[in-house]
Amino acid sequence: MTGTLHAPLRVEFDYTRSLGPVLSRFMTGLRDRTIVGARASDGRVIVPPVEYDPLTHQPPTEFVEVGPGGTVSTWSWVSEPVPDQPLEKPFAFALVLLDGADTPMLHAVEVAEPSAMHTGMRVTARWVEEPAGHIRDIACFVPEDDASVVESGGFEARKLAPQPPEKDPVSGIVTPVRLDYTYAASPEESRFLRGLEEGRLLAQRCPKCHKVYIPPRGACPVDGVPTTDEIELPDKGIVTTFCIVNVPFLGQRITPPYVSAYVLLDGADIAFLHLILGADADEVRMGMRVEAVWRPREEWSTTIENIDHFRPTGEPDADYETFKAHL
Amino acid sequence: MRDVAVVGFAQRQMREMEGSPTCVELLVPIFAELFESTGWTKSDVDFWCSGSSDYLAGRSFSFVSAVDAIGALPPVVESHVEMDAAWAMYEAWVKISMGEADTALVYGFGKSSAGQLRRTLALQLDPYVLGPLWPDTVSIAALQARLGLEQGQWDEKEMASVVARSRASGADNPYAVVAGETSVDELLAEQMYADPLRKHDCAPVSDGAAAVVLAAEDRATETVARPAWITGIEHRADGQSLGLRDLTRSPSTAGAAAALGGSGGVNGVDTAELYAPFSHQELILRRELGLSDSVSVNPSGGVLCGNPMFAAGLVRVGEAANRVMAGTSDRALAHATSGPALQQNLLCLLEGRS
User: Which architecture, in CATH terms, is B126-204+232-351?
Assistant: First the structure.
């Protein structure tokens, strides 16, 4: 088998952010199905409001309601939408100058074809059913002709009370972030993982300092040269250092307390993290001899999990002097 | 302040790299090439500085793994910016200028192909009102392109001319991932991708790494015959609110150019390597920089021929410096950009001394 090993990888988290007074005002407005801008020191109404005046750098104090209608000042056609954009089918991103605003805001416009878009066209906000205080409360903009409610002309910005709405202001936003990758192992890692599939532990020796690395790395971190000499290591070694896990966490597979340890295989110069079973947590010690307990052969694949855990061999402990350089 | 020069440059670019996003397998041969060309060893490098992105790699601390390529024992003095490595070079330039180091090796790397680049880059946007809409980089650039087109600031033919010239120049660049002769008519006959942009208006998604060697005064002159002296280096940023910017202009580029030192700043440069990931952005940059038609723009082909993220800005510096070191340029300008629609811009003036 050639080439590097690849696997899908998803990085996922909720981007959770608190809001200052200005963005809280904007998000609270969205929750209440209104779009709020702020007047800058030069008189312009900025939408969405920025937290500090672009000229004086002072927080804005005057807020006005704008939109929900406006005109497109520029647009681009998204022929191949990416996940989590406002629309799943092709759509336009546009800078929309809302009625009463002096700066345009970015959002999506839903039309069927790029030919239905033009600069200067009238659009209006389409709200989601249950606004929560987030920019996505506006599902997208739609051509005003298509909107169920059409704003009449002659719009004037409505000045709002200086204080934010008393009622339950929005104090934070949560944006789910999901990123998909094809993660590739390095050529050395790929050889190591393929070795594991055959029950072999493949390490590499630095041609310069002769240190043995497992898993092998692209380069010797001491010398910066590729580690080219491959050697196979036994599945026995020692515990160099360890910790007793007492704290439960999401996705934990073993009931605490259990021991996570750095295992230094015989002949290796770098230890790797694995699980120690077969001894009570308080019996595990530095220098303890351990051996790999492999899963049944039919379960093996290109993963370190082929080794279920390490267990004590009962041999005499290694002398501290023999492994102190590996701590 | 001491004089600092670029004395070495090496790069790798490809459409898709097989290996891991730490790019160690690209960096090891790049460093070896630089040790060969400078005659240095690891111990000659006082300071290491890199630019890369964990979001691009899809893993945390990818730059720490990349340090393996250095061989960091005994410990080295090392730093990292989560930006294009041109900004890492700025950090190294400051360090050497101030006498904290005599030499530096600056490197950048990125495996853009690991994820969906145009989507990943939405994470560089304001996280409150822009990021949650996932506006991809191509769409944002297209908004900018249309503004200029409809205001008559540039036209489709000018954009296609940028592409045609870049691809023709790229034919001589062994690292170009897209290159070759084409014509404006052929390009304009292609269909729209992100109307008003066609695919060729957008830099290709590419992987790669690059490194530049910097040295102060005597260290520079004893390393190469004709160092590329950094006689000016400036960077500026425009605001993060897209609606507050005039997207057809680049005040940060103009501001950096106005502040640039050297003998006359941008005036009189014979070569310019500009980081314009979209064809119309080169037109914006040329105007803001006031480059005359006699200036050789992007003789390497520029990023329309290959755009390894987080390295491509440093590649511009290296390409410009290479021409000065080779004696084919006396004054070359390198430009790097970061952020949406040319939000942040760095200029670096490189000069040869006879």
Answer: 3-Layer(aba) Sandwich (3.40)
